[in-house]
Amino acid sequence: MAEEDTSPRPSNINRTRTISDINAHGPKKNETLRAALPPARPSAQVDRDVQQAAETLFAISNGTKG
């Protein structure tokens, strides 16, 4: 029988943070990431025929699952 490996793993070392610590720093990092994104583009107008084709394909694909 093989010996169990109980050596510490790098990913387990930093698990001592509390939930409140994570909550305190999470939103700041999220806002930093959002600020780095390019500005949102306005949605383009979709051609009526393209929209109809997309809806038809969606209906067909959902109807064939089962």
Structure description:
- By secondary structure, this protein is mostly helical.
- It is 58% helix and 0% strand.
- The chain contains three helices and no strands.
- It has helices at 10-13, 19-36, 48-63.
- The radius of gyration is 25 Å and the shape is flat.
Provide a brief overview of the structure.
The protein is mainly alpha-helical. The protein is 58% helix and 0% strand.
Indicate the mean pLDDT: 76
Which value, in Å, is the CA radius of gyration? 25 Å
Low-pLDDT segments, ≥5 res? none
Give me the count of strands. 0
Label the overall shape. Answer: flat
Number of helices: 3
The largest β sheet comes out as: none
Q: Report helical residue fraction.
A: 55-70%
List SSEs in N-to-C order.
HHH
State the end-to-end CA separation.
46 Å
Kindly estimate the percentage of residues that lie in beta strands according to DSSP: under 5%
* Structural category: mainly alpha
Keywords: Plasmid
Region (Disordered): 1-30
Biased composition (Polar residues): 8-21
